[in-house]
């Protein structure tokens, strides 16, 4: 899911800078925690804009990273003007949210396989997911399945994305955001059909309650051409005065 369509559709004179997760390119280190990811992101942002105020955005799992990055900026004395979280909740899957586990167990978990598949296919449609769940029992089998379905993707890229997503579901991959109170205002754009996000289930994470804006588009459609306009209109309509 690319933020390019969103960046192109926004009406703003400000730069829109996207940061890709480390580990997707050959030879890159995969961050082992949200903490490590957010520290890296803060460093990269400072290379482009050394001082605040910053407006940070995060989509899906990236919303957690954006939250932690905003907290690091505030902790260091920088001002965060706003935090925008786009679809921070996970899409609802029939078996419930995946249970964090070691990779050997994750690739036997239908819920995890469904979420991982959606990273590549942008859908959790049962008729699309069922053959995957039937065929896959380990990481290699998953990569082989996706490579056959998506021949336009380099198999090594598929493998690196798979490893990155699996890493975030291991038991040790956690965030301390429960203790990281944020002062910046937060707008949360909630996709149709998503579970409550981390921010909606925490009571002490933000100094001021987040403004929650529901969207008609689901988790996978809201950034696509033809649907991103709903999000853009909501962002401009709900912009702070």
Secondary structure: elements and pairs:
Blueprint: H1 4-9, H2 34-48, E1 54-59, H3 62-75, E2 80-86, H4 103-106, H5 110-121, H6 126-135, H7 139-149, H8 155-168, E3 186-192, H9 198-201, E4 211-218, H10 228-237
Parallel strand pairs: 1-2, 2-3, 3-4
Helix pairs in contact: 2-3, 7-8
Describe what you observe in this structure:
The protein is α/β, with parallel strands linked by helices and 241 residues long. It has 10 helices and 4 strands. The protein has helices at 4-9, 34-48, 62-75, 103-106, 110-121, 126-135, 139-149, 155-168, 198-201, 228-237; strands at 54-59, 80-86, 186-192, 211-218. A 4-stranded parallel beta sheet has the order 1-2-3-4, sandwiched between helices. Helix 2 (34-48) packs across helix 3 and helix 7 packs across helix 8 (155-168). It is globular, with a radius of gyration of 18 Å. The two termini are 30 Å apart. The model has no long low-confidence stretch (mean pLDDT 89).
Please sum up the structure shown.
By secondary structure, this protein is an alpha/beta fold.
In one word, what is the shape? globular
Terminal Cα separation, in Å? 30 Å
Lateral arrangement of strands in the main beta sheet:
1-2-3-4
Instruction: List low-confidence stretches.
Output: none
Give the beta-strand count: 4
Major sheet attributes? 4 strands, parallel
SSE class: alpha/beta
How many helical elements?
10
Report the order of strands and helices.
HHEHEHHHHHEHEH
Percentage of β-strand residues: 5-15%
- The helix fraction, in percent, is 40-55%
Jot down its keywords.
241 residues, alpha/beta, 12% strand, 4-stranded parallel sheet, 10 helices
């Amino acid at each position: 899911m690319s933020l390019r369509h969103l960046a192109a559709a926004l009406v703003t004179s400000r730069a829109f800078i996207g940061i890709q997760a480390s580990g997707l390119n050959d030879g890159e280190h995969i961050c082992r925690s949200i903490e490590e990811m957010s520290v890296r992101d803060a460093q990269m942002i400072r290379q482009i804009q050394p001082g605040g105020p910053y407006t940070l955005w995060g989509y899906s799992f990236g919303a957690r990273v954006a939250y932690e990055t905003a907290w690091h900026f505030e902790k260091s004395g920088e001002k965060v003007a706003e935090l925008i979280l786009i679809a921070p909740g996970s899409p609802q899957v029939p078996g419930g949210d995946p249970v964090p586990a070691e990779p050997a167990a994750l690739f036997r978990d239908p819920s995890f396989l469904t979420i991982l598949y959606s990273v590549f296919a942008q859908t959790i449609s049962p008729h699309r997911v069922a053959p995957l769940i039937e065929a896959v029992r380990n990481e290699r089998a998953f990569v082989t399945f996706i490579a056959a379905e998506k021949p336009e993707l380099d198999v090594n890229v598929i493998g690196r994305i798979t490893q990155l997503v699996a890493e975030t579901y291991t038991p040790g991959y956690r965030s301390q955001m429960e203790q990281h109170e944020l002062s910046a205002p937060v707008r949360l754009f909630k996709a149709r059909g998503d579970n409550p996000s981390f921010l909606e289930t925490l009571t002490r994470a933000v100094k001021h309650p987040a403004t929650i804006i529901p969207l008609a588009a689901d988790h996978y459609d809201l950034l696509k051409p033809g649907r991103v306009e709903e999000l853009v209109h909501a962002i401009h309509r709900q912009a702070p005065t």
